[in-house]
Amino acid sequence: MKRFSRTDRVRDEIKRIVGILVEQEVNDPRVGFVTITAVEVSRDFAVATIYVTVGEAENVEETLAGLRAASGFLRKRLGETVRLRNTPELRFVYDQSIDRGFRMDALLKRLADERDVAN
């Protein structure tokens, strides 16, 4: 049985709590539908990089600005919930992996279609 490291547990807890807070308590109109896809924490837990996807791709920068504006509030609420010596600074980053996956999917489909037409 694999044991999870403390870093893994902290990362998962930050992802869970920040996800709930963004959904239920962030009232910034710039922050619409946001999904937290991953969280990375530094070795000393001083910084948590939170990767997000946005419901509408056109509003990525606006949504990130709203999340960054709410990061102090989120950090405070996170500190009230998670027992760490220091609450990490929250940095929000757009997760481009889903967009890349869609592009790769489209390219592979186009290649398959071209191959079918050629045969």
Short overview:
This protein has 119 residues and is of the alpha+beta class. Helix content is 53%, strand content 18%. It has a single domain, classed as K homology (KH) domain (GMP Synthetase, Chain A, domain 3).
Structure annotation, total helices: 3
Q: Based on helices, strands and strand pairing, what is the structural class?
A: alpha+beta
What's the rounded overall pLDDT mean? 86
Share of helix, binned = 40-55%
How many domain regions? Answer: 1
What does the main sheet amount to? 3 strands, mixed
Q: Name the CATH homologous superfamily.
A: K homology (KH) domain
The CATH architecture term is: 2-Layer Sandwich
Net shape = elongated
CATH topology: GMP Synthetase, Chain A, domain 3
Through-space gap between termini: 50 Å
Low-confidence stretches: none
Radius of gyration: 18 Å
Description:
The chain has 119 residues and is an alpha+beta fold. The protein has helices spanning 6-24, 60-81, 97-118; strands at 34-41, 47-54, 89-94. It has one domain: 2-Layer Sandwich (GMP Synthetase, Chain A, domain 3). It is 53% helix and 18% strand. Strands 1-2-3 form a three-stranded mixed sheet, covered by helices on one side. Helix 1 packs across helix 2 (60-81). The N and C termini lie far apart (50 Å).
Topology:
Layout: H1 6-24, E1 34-41, E2 47-54, H2 60-81, E3 89-94, H3 97-118
Parallel strand pairs: 2-3
Antiparallel strand pairs: 1-2
